[in-house]
Amino acid sequence: MRTQVGIVGAGPAGLLLSHLLARRGIDSVVLEARSREYIERRVRAGVLEHPTVELLREVGLGERMDREGMPHEGVSLRFDSEEHRIDFADLTGRGIVVYGQQEVVKDLVAARLADGGDVRFEVSGVRLDGLTSDPVIHFDGADGTRGELRCDAVVGADGFHGVSRAAVPHTTYDRQYPFAWLGILAQAAPVREELVYANHPDGFALYSMRSPEVTRLYLQVPPDTDADDWSDARIWDELHRRLGTEINEGPLLEKGVTGMRSFVAEPMRHGRLFLAGDAAHIVPPTGAKGMNLAIADVRVLADALYRLVTAGDGSGVDAYSDTCLRRVWRAEHFSWWMTSMLHTDPAADAFDRRLQLAQLRQTVRSRAAATTLAENYVGLPHGSV
Ligand code: FAD
Ligand code: DHB
Protein backbone atom coordinates (compact mmCIF):
# COMPACT_ATOMS: atom_id res chain seq x y z
CA MET A 1 0.00 0.00 0.00
CA ARG A 2 1.26 3.49 -0.82
CA THR A 3 0.26 7.01 0.21
CA GLN A 4 1.95 10.39 0.10
CA VAL A 5 1.94 11.05 3.86
CA GLY A 6 1.67 8.32 6.50
CA ILE A 7 0.38 9.71 9.81
CA VAL A 8 0.68 7.86 13.12
CA GLY A 9 -1.99 8.97 15.63
CA ALA A 10 -5.55 10.29 15.27
CA GLY A 11 -5.42 13.02 17.90
CA PRO A 12 -6.08 16.65 16.98
CA ALA A 13 -2.62 16.88 15.31
CA GLY A 14 -2.85 13.79 13.08
CA LEU A 15 -6.47 14.27 12.05
CA LEU A 16 -6.17 17.98 11.30
CA LEU A 17 -2.99 17.40 9.28
CA SER A 18 -4.78 14.77 7.21
CA HIS A 19 -7.65 17.23 6.62
CA LEU A 20 -5.32 20.13 5.66
CA LEU A 21 -3.39 17.90 3.24
CA ALA A 22 -6.60 16.59 1.65
CA ARG A 23 -7.72 20.16 0.98
CA ARG A 24 -4.55 20.57 -1.07
CA GLY A 25 -5.00 17.32 -2.93
CA ILE A 26 -2.45 15.31 -0.95
CA ASP A 27 -3.26 11.74 0.10
CA SER A 28 -2.62 10.47 3.58
CA VAL A 29 -3.43 7.47 5.74
CA VAL A 30 -3.93 7.89 9.50
CA LEU A 31 -3.08 4.91 11.75
CA GLU A 32 -4.62 5.03 15.24
CA ALA A 33 -4.11 2.57 18.10
CA ARG A 34 -7.49 3.17 19.77
CA SER A 35 -11.07 2.81 18.57
CA ARG A 36 -13.09 5.67 17.11
CA GLU A 37 -15.43 5.58 20.17
CA TYR A 38 -12.46 5.84 22.53
CA ILE A 39 -10.84 8.88 20.91
CA GLU A 40 -14.19 10.65 20.60
CA ARG A 41 -14.90 10.20 24.32
CA ARG A 42 -11.46 11.00 25.76
CA VAL A 43 -11.90 14.11 27.95
CA ARG A 44 -8.94 16.47 27.71
CA ALA A 45 -8.42 20.12 26.84
CA GLY A 46 -11.23 22.64 26.45
CA VAL A 47 -9.89 26.03 25.38
CA LEU A 48 -9.38 26.98 21.73
CA GLU A 49 -7.19 30.04 21.29
CA HIS A 50 -8.09 32.64 18.69
CA PRO A 51 -5.71 31.47 15.90
CA THR A 52 -7.02 27.88 16.36
CA VAL A 53 -10.63 29.07 16.04
CA GLU A 54 -9.80 31.08 12.92
CA LEU A 55 -7.98 28.16 11.32
CA LEU A 56 -10.81 25.69 12.03
CA ARG A 57 -13.30 28.11 10.45
CA GLU A 58 -11.05 28.74 7.46
CA VAL A 59 -10.77 25.03 6.67
CA GLY A 60 -14.49 24.24 6.98
CA LEU A 61 -14.49 22.89 10.53
CA GLY A 62 -16.14 25.82 12.30
CA GLU A 63 -19.84 25.10 11.94
CA ARG A 64 -20.59 23.11 15.13
CA MET A 65 -17.88 24.98 17.08
CA ASP A 66 -19.62 28.27 16.24
CA ARG A 67 -23.01 26.84 17.19
CA GLU A 68 -22.09 24.98 20.39
CA GLY A 69 -18.78 26.50 21.51
CA MET A 70 -18.79 29.16 24.20
CA PRO A 71 -16.93 32.38 23.22
CA HIS A 72 -15.22 34.02 26.23
CA GLU A 73 -13.78 37.54 26.35
CA GLY A 74 -11.80 37.20 29.57
CA VAL A 75 -10.80 35.10 32.57
CA SER A 76 -10.52 35.87 36.28
CA LEU A 77 -7.56 35.36 38.56
CA ARG A 78 -8.36 34.87 42.24
CA PHE A 79 -5.80 35.31 45.03
CA ASP A 80 -5.75 36.76 48.55
CA SER A 81 -9.55 36.20 48.67
CA GLU A 82 -10.16 38.63 45.81
CA GLU A 83 -11.02 38.13 42.16
CA HIS A 84 -9.61 40.19 39.29
CA ARG A 85 -10.80 40.00 35.69
CA ILE A 86 -8.41 40.02 32.75
CA ASP A 87 -10.40 41.52 29.89
CA PHE A 88 -9.09 39.90 26.69
CA ALA A 89 -11.42 41.88 24.43
CA ASP A 90 -10.24 45.21 25.81
CA LEU A 91 -6.56 44.25 26.01
CA THR A 92 -6.19 42.37 22.72
CA GLY A 93 -9.43 42.74 20.73
CA ARG A 94 -9.62 38.94 20.61
CA GLY A 95 -11.00 36.08 22.70
CA ILE A 96 -11.12 32.30 23.09
CA VAL A 97 -13.76 29.62 22.53
CA VAL A 98 -14.49 26.92 25.09
CA TYR A 99 -15.12 23.75 23.06
CA GLY A 100 -13.98 20.32 24.23
CA GLN A 101 -11.08 18.56 22.53
CA GLN A 102 -13.25 15.49 21.98
CA GLU A 103 -15.70 17.68 20.06
CA VAL A 104 -12.86 18.90 17.81
CA VAL A 105 -11.83 15.26 17.34
CA LYS A 106 -15.43 14.22 16.48
CA ASP A 107 -15.68 17.04 13.91
CA LEU A 108 -12.34 16.04 12.38
CA VAL A 109 -13.16 12.32 12.17
CA ALA A 110 -16.55 13.13 10.61
CA ALA A 111 -14.92 15.47 8.06
CA ARG A 112 -12.22 12.94 7.11
CA LEU A 113 -14.70 10.11 6.67
CA ALA A 114 -17.16 12.31 4.70
CA ASP A 115 -14.31 13.25 2.34
CA GLY A 116 -13.36 9.61 1.81
CA GLY A 117 -10.28 9.93 4.03
CA ASP A 118 -8.45 6.79 5.16
CA VAL A 119 -8.36 6.58 8.98
CA ARG A 120 -7.55 3.10 10.39
CA PHE A 121 -8.55 2.55 14.00
CA GLU A 122 -7.30 -0.14 16.41
CA VAL A 123 -3.99 -0.74 14.63
CA SER A 124 -1.09 -2.13 16.66
CA GLY A 125 2.60 -2.89 16.32
CA VAL A 126 3.46 0.34 14.45
CA ARG A 127 7.14 0.28 13.40
CA LEU A 128 8.91 2.91 11.28
CA ASP A 129 11.58 2.05 8.74
CA GLY A 130 13.61 3.70 5.95
CA LEU A 131 13.18 7.17 7.40
CA THR A 132 16.21 8.66 5.66
CA SER A 133 15.50 7.00 2.31
CA ASP A 134 12.15 5.36 1.44
CA PRO A 135 9.87 5.43 4.49
CA VAL A 136 7.71 2.41 5.35
CA ILE A 137 5.30 2.06 8.26
CA HIS A 138 4.75 -1.56 9.37
CA PHE A 139 1.60 -2.21 11.39
CA ASP A 140 -1.05 -4.79 12.31
CA GLY A 141 -4.57 -3.88 11.22
CA ALA A 142 -7.67 -4.20 13.46
CA ASP A 143 -8.27 -7.68 12.01
CA GLY A 144 -4.70 -8.76 12.82
CA THR A 145 -3.38 -8.73 9.24
CA ARG A 146 0.08 -7.24 8.69
CA GLY A 147 0.12 -3.96 6.82
CA GLU A 148 2.92 -2.08 5.10
CA LEU A 149 2.44 1.57 4.22
CA ARG A 150 5.01 3.14 1.90
CA CYS A 151 5.05 6.92 1.88
CA ASP A 152 6.96 10.06 0.84
CA ALA A 153 6.89 11.36 4.43
CA VAL A 154 5.90 10.02 7.86
CA VAL A 155 4.35 12.16 10.58
CA GLY A 156 4.60 11.07 14.22
CA ALA A 157 1.45 12.60 15.76
CA ASP A 158 1.15 9.77 18.27
CA GLY A 159 1.22 11.80 21.48
CA PHE A 160 3.64 11.71 24.38
CA HIS A 161 3.52 7.91 24.82
CA GLY A 162 3.74 7.08 21.11
CA VAL A 163 6.54 5.25 19.28
CA SER A 164 7.67 7.93 16.81
CA ARG A 165 9.79 10.15 19.02
CA ALA A 166 12.23 7.28 19.67
CA ALA A 167 13.03 7.20 15.93
CA VAL A 168 14.33 10.81 16.01
CA PRO A 169 17.80 11.33 17.51
CA HIS A 170 16.97 14.18 19.88
CA THR A 171 17.86 16.15 22.97
CA THR A 172 15.18 16.49 25.64
CA TYR A 173 14.43 19.41 27.92
CA ASP A 174 12.26 18.31 30.81
CA ARG A 175 10.74 19.64 34.03
CA GLN A 176 8.37 17.85 36.40
CA TYR A 177 6.22 19.70 38.90
CA PRO A 178 5.55 18.63 42.50
CA PHE A 179 1.78 18.52 41.93
CA ALA A 180 -0.91 17.16 39.59
CA TRP A 181 -4.48 18.09 38.65
CA LEU A 182 -7.56 16.19 39.72
CA GLY A 183 -10.13 17.05 37.02
CA ILE A 184 -13.86 16.44 37.15
CA LEU A 185 -16.67 16.86 34.69
CA ALA A 186 -19.99 17.46 36.46
CA GLN A 187 -23.57 17.37 35.22
CA ALA A 188 -24.23 20.85 36.61
CA ALA A 189 -25.05 24.15 34.90
CA PRO A 190 -22.10 26.56 35.14
CA VAL A 191 -22.98 29.59 37.26
CA ARG A 192 -19.98 31.56 36.08
CA GLU A 193 -19.74 32.88 32.53
CA GLU A 194 -15.94 32.70 32.35
CA LEU A 195 -13.02 30.66 33.74
CA VAL A 196 -11.62 31.35 37.20
CA TYR A 197 -7.98 30.49 38.01
CA ALA A 198 -7.56 30.46 41.80
CA ASN A 199 -4.32 30.65 43.74
CA HIS A 200 -5.00 29.36 47.27
CA PRO A 201 -2.56 28.45 50.08
CA ASP A 202 -4.02 24.90 50.02
CA GLY A 203 -3.48 24.60 46.28
CA PHE A 204 -4.61 25.83 42.88
CA ALA A 205 -8.19 25.38 41.61
CA LEU A 206 -9.74 26.09 38.20
CA TYR A 207 -13.36 26.71 37.27
CA SER A 208 -14.20 25.87 33.66
CA MET A 209 -17.10 24.49 31.67
CA ARG A 210 -18.04 22.51 28.60
CA SER A 211 -21.65 23.48 27.87
CA PRO A 212 -24.64 25.21 29.49
CA GLU A 213 -25.24 21.91 31.36
CA VAL A 214 -21.71 20.72 32.16
CA THR A 215 -19.09 22.24 34.47
CA ARG A 216 -15.38 21.28 34.32
CA LEU A 217 -13.33 21.79 37.48
CA TYR A 218 -9.76 21.08 38.55
CA LEU A 219 -7.92 20.89 41.88
CA GLN A 220 -4.19 20.84 42.56
CA VAL A 221 -3.35 17.51 44.27
CA PRO A 222 -0.09 15.67 45.10
CA PRO A 223 1.50 14.00 42.04
CA ASP A 224 0.88 10.40 43.20
CA THR A 225 -2.83 10.95 43.91
CA ASP A 226 -5.29 8.12 43.27
CA ALA A 227 -8.55 9.73 42.09
CA ASP A 228 -10.50 7.07 44.01
CA ASP A 229 -9.18 8.49 47.28
CA TRP A 230 -11.19 11.63 46.60
CA SER A 231 -14.88 11.21 47.39
CA ASP A 232 -17.34 13.52 45.64
CA ALA A 233 -18.02 15.33 48.93
CA ARG A 234 -14.30 15.97 49.51
CA ILE A 235 -13.87 17.30 45.95
CA TRP A 236 -16.82 19.71 46.23
CA ASP A 237 -15.70 20.94 49.69
CA GLU A 238 -12.23 21.67 48.44
CA LEU A 239 -13.52 23.39 45.27
CA HIS A 240 -15.87 25.66 47.26
CA ARG A 241 -13.09 26.61 49.65
CA ARG A 242 -10.37 27.27 47.08
CA LEU A 243 -12.52 28.95 44.41
CA GLY A 244 -14.52 31.11 46.85
CA THR A 245 -17.30 31.42 44.30
CA GLU A 246 -20.76 29.96 43.91
CA ILE A 247 -20.62 26.51 42.23
CA ASN A 248 -23.51 24.30 41.20
CA GLU A 249 -22.87 20.72 42.28
CA GLY A 250 -24.00 17.73 40.24
CA PRO A 251 -23.24 14.08 39.50
CA LEU A 252 -19.68 13.45 38.26
CA LEU A 253 -19.46 12.30 34.64
CA GLU A 254 -15.69 11.87 34.77
CA LYS A 255 -12.86 12.07 37.29
CA GLY A 256 -9.13 11.72 36.59
CA VAL A 257 -5.63 12.82 37.57
CA THR A 258 -3.33 14.54 35.04
CA GLY A 259 0.40 14.83 35.70
CA MET A 260 2.13 18.15 35.14
CA ARG A 261 5.26 18.34 33.09
CA SER A 262 7.17 20.51 30.66
CA PHE A 263 8.99 18.58 27.94
CA VAL A 264 10.55 19.43 24.58
CA ALA A 265 12.33 17.09 22.15
CA GLU A 266 14.62 18.86 19.67
CA PRO A 267 14.71 18.65 16.71
CA MET A 268 11.23 17.67 15.54
CA ARG A 269 12.49 16.01 12.36
CA HIS A 270 14.72 13.13 11.28
CA GLY A 271 15.02 12.55 7.53
CA ARG A 272 11.46 12.10 6.29
CA LEU A 273 9.91 11.70 9.75
CA PHE A 274 8.28 14.78 11.31
CA LEU A 275 7.02 14.93 14.90
CA ALA A 276 3.95 17.05 15.68
CA GLY A 277 2.05 17.92 18.86
CA ASP A 278 2.50 16.01 22.12
CA ALA A 279 4.87 13.54 20.41
CA ALA A 280 7.46 16.35 20.48
CA HIS A 281 6.41 18.60 23.37
CA ILE A 282 4.29 18.73 26.51
CA VAL A 283 3.24 21.75 28.55
CA PRO A 284 1.64 21.72 32.00
CA PRO A 285 -2.08 22.37 31.41
CA THR A 286 -2.31 25.80 33.15
CA GLY A 287 -3.11 28.19 30.29
CA ALA A 288 -4.50 25.47 28.00
CA LYS A 289 -1.80 25.52 25.34
CA GLY A 290 -1.33 21.75 24.61
CA MET A 291 -3.88 21.17 21.88
CA ASN A 292 -3.40 24.65 20.44
CA LEU A 293 0.32 24.00 19.97
CA ALA A 294 -0.39 20.67 18.28
CA ILE A 295 -2.66 22.51 15.83
CA ALA A 296 -0.07 25.24 15.17
CA ASP A 297 2.55 22.56 14.36
CA VAL A 298 0.44 20.84 11.72
CA ARG A 299 -0.49 24.10 10.06
CA VAL A 300 3.22 24.70 9.42
CA LEU A 301 3.76 21.06 8.45
CA ALA A 302 0.87 20.93 5.97
CA ASP A 303 2.40 23.85 4.04
CA ALA A 304 5.88 22.37 4.17
CA LEU A 305 4.77 18.89 3.02
CA TYR A 306 2.68 20.38 0.22
CA ARG A 307 5.76 22.10 -1.17
CA LEU A 308 7.85 18.96 -0.72
CA VAL A 309 5.56 16.42 -2.34
CA THR A 310 4.16 18.57 -5.15
CA ALA A 311 7.25 20.55 -6.21
CA GLY A 312 10.16 18.76 -4.56
CA ASP A 313 10.82 22.01 -2.67
CA GLY A 314 12.44 21.07 0.66
CA SER A 315 12.73 24.59 2.09
CA GLY A 316 9.58 24.27 4.21
CA VAL A 317 10.45 20.90 5.71
CA ASP A 318 14.02 22.07 6.35
CA ALA A 319 12.68 25.01 8.37
CA TYR A 320 9.85 23.01 10.04
CA SER A 321 11.55 22.17 13.34
CA ASP A 322 13.02 25.65 13.96
CA THR A 323 9.78 27.38 12.95
CA CYS A 324 7.67 25.27 15.32
CA LEU A 325 10.13 25.34 18.20
CA ARG A 326 9.94 29.14 18.40
CA ARG A 327 6.21 28.95 19.16
CA VAL A 328 6.72 25.83 21.33
CA TRP A 329 9.21 27.62 23.59
CA ARG A 330 6.95 30.69 23.87
CA ALA A 331 4.14 28.39 25.04
CA GLU A 332 6.54 26.47 27.30
CA HIS A 333 7.45 29.73 28.99
CA PHE A 334 3.84 30.91 29.31
CA SER A 335 2.63 27.57 30.70
CA TRP A 336 5.53 27.32 33.16
CA TRP A 337 4.91 30.94 34.25
CA MET A 338 1.15 30.47 34.76
CA THR A 339 1.81 27.19 36.61
CA SER A 340 4.45 28.71 38.91
CA MET A 341 2.37 31.82 39.61
CA LEU A 342 -0.85 29.97 40.43
CA HIS A 343 0.14 26.73 42.22
CA THR A 344 1.30 26.16 45.77
CA ASP A 345 4.67 24.42 45.71
CA PRO A 346 4.87 22.23 48.83
CA ALA A 347 8.56 23.22 49.16
CA ALA A 348 7.91 26.97 48.91
CA ASP A 349 8.75 29.14 51.92
CA ALA A 350 7.28 32.47 53.07
CA PHE A 351 9.66 34.38 50.79
CA ASP A 352 8.51 32.41 47.71
CA ARG A 353 4.87 33.02 48.69
CA ARG A 354 5.41 36.79 48.86
CA LEU A 355 7.15 36.80 45.48
CA GLN A 356 4.20 34.89 44.01
CA LEU A 357 1.69 37.40 45.39
CA ALA A 358 3.80 40.31 44.10
CA GLN A 359 3.72 38.73 40.63
CA LEU A 360 -0.05 38.14 40.78
CA ARG A 361 -0.72 41.72 41.93
CA GLN A 362 1.38 43.18 39.15
CA THR A 363 -0.31 40.94 36.58
CA VAL A 364 -3.77 42.26 37.44
CA ARG A 365 -2.84 45.90 38.22
CA SER A 366 -0.48 46.78 35.39
CA ARG A 367 -2.12 47.08 31.98
CA ALA A 368 1.18 46.08 30.34
CA ALA A 369 1.46 42.92 32.47
CA ALA A 370 -2.22 42.01 32.01
CA THR A 371 -1.79 42.47 28.25
CA THR A 372 1.15 40.05 28.24
CA LEU A 373 -1.02 37.41 29.91
CA ALA A 374 -3.96 38.16 27.62
CA GLU A 375 -2.05 38.05 24.34
CA ASN A 376 -0.41 34.74 25.21
CA TYR A 377 -3.70 33.28 26.45
CA VAL A 378 -5.74 34.23 23.36
CA GLY A 379 -2.79 32.98 21.29
CA LEU A 380 -0.14 34.84 19.33
CA PRO A 381 -1.00 34.93 15.61
CA HIS A 382 0.37 31.92 13.71
CA GLY A 383 3.68 32.81 12.09
CA SER A 384 4.29 35.80 14.39
CA VAL A 385 6.51 34.16 17.02
P1 FAD B 1 -2.91 13.11 21.26
O1 FAD B 1 -4.20 13.79 21.43
O2 FAD B 1 -2.30 12.44 22.45
O3 FAD B 1 -3.11 12.05 20.11
C1 FAD B 1 -2.18 11.03 19.83
C2 FAD B 1 -2.92 9.83 19.26
O4 FAD B 1 -1.96 8.84 18.90
C3 FAD B 1 -3.84 9.18 20.27
O5 FAD B 1 -5.13 9.05 19.72
C4 FAD B 1 -3.19 7.84 20.57
O6 FAD B 1 -4.15 6.84 20.86
C5 FAD B 1 -2.44 7.57 19.29
N1 FAD B 1 -1.28 6.70 19.44
C6 FAD B 1 -0.38 6.67 20.45
N2 FAD B 1 0.55 5.73 20.23
C7 FAD B 1 0.23 5.15 19.05
C8 FAD B 1 0.83 4.12 18.29
N3 FAD B 1 1.94 3.50 18.70
N4 FAD B 1 0.24 3.76 17.13
C9 FAD B 1 -0.88 4.39 16.68
N5 FAD B 1 -1.49 5.39 17.37
C10 FAD B 1 -0.93 5.77 18.54
N6 FAD B 1 -4.29 20.30 27.30
C11 FAD B 1 -4.89 21.42 27.62
O7 FAD B 1 -4.64 22.43 26.96
N7 FAD B 1 -5.79 21.46 28.67
C12 FAD B 1 -6.12 20.32 29.39
O8 FAD B 1 -6.95 20.36 30.29
C13 FAD B 1 -5.49 19.12 29.06
N8 FAD B 1 -5.77 17.97 29.72
C14 FAD B 1 -5.12 16.81 29.35
C15 FAD B 1 -5.39 15.60 30.03
C16 FAD B 1 -4.72 14.41 29.70
C17 FAD B 1 -5.01 13.13 30.46
C18 FAD B 1 -3.76 14.44 28.66
C19 FAD B 1 -3.01 13.17 28.29
C20 FAD B 1 -3.51 15.63 27.97
C21 FAD B 1 -4.19 16.81 28.31
N9 FAD B 1 -3.95 18.02 27.63
C22 FAD B 1 -4.57 19.15 27.98
C23 FAD B 1 -3.06 18.10 26.51
C24 FAD B 1 -3.80 18.01 25.18
O9 FAD B 1 -4.89 17.15 25.32
C25 FAD B 1 -2.79 17.55 24.17
O10 FAD B 1 -1.82 18.56 24.04
C26 FAD B 1 -3.36 17.19 22.80
O11 FAD B 1 -4.17 16.04 22.91
C27 FAD B 1 -2.24 16.96 21.79
O12 FAD B 1 -2.74 16.43 20.61
P2 FAD B 1 -1.91 15.38 19.77
O13 FAD B 1 -2.74 15.12 18.58
O14 FAD B 1 -0.53 15.86 19.62
O15 FAD B 1 -1.80 14.08 20.69
C1 DHB C 1 -9.33 23.91 30.77
C2 DHB C 1 -8.10 23.33 30.86
C3 DHB C 1 -6.99 24.13 31.09
O1 DHB C 1 -5.78 23.57 31.17
C4 DHB C 1 -7.11 25.49 31.25
O2 DHB C 1 -6.02 26.24 31.50
C5 DHB C 1 -8.35 26.06 31.13
C6 DHB C 1 -9.47 25.26 30.89
C7 DHB C 1 -10.52 23.06 30.52
O3 DHB C 1 -10.35 21.83 30.45
O4 DHB C 1 -11.63 23.59 30.43
TrEMBL record:
<dbReference type="GO" id="GO:0016709">
    <property type="term" value="F:oxidoreductase activity, acting on paired donors, with incorporation or reduction of molecular oxygen, NAD(P)H as one donor, and incorporation of one atom of oxygen"/>
</dbReference>
<protein>
    <submittedName>
        <fullName>4-hydroxybenzoate 3-monooxygenase</fullName>
    </submittedName>
</protein>
<dbReference type="GO" id="GO:0071949">
    <property type="term" value="F:FAD binding"/>
</dbReference>
<dbReference type="InterPro" id="IPR002938">
    <property type="entry name" value="FAD-bd"/>
</dbReference>
<dbReference type="InterPro" id="IPR036188">
    <property type="entry name" value="FAD/NAD-bd_sf"/>
</dbReference>
<keyword id="KW-0274">FAD</keyword>
<keyword id="KW-0285">Flavoprotein</keyword>
<keyword id="KW-0503">Monooxygenase</keyword>
<dbReference type="InterPro" id="IPR050641">
    <property type="entry name" value="RIFMO-like"/>
</dbReference>
<dbReference type="Pfam" id="PF01494">
    <property type="entry name" value="FAD_binding_3"/>
</dbReference>
<feature type="domain" description="FAD-binding">
    <location>
        <begin position="2"/>
        <end position="335"/>
    </location>
</feature>
<keyword id="KW-0560">Oxidoreductase</keyword>
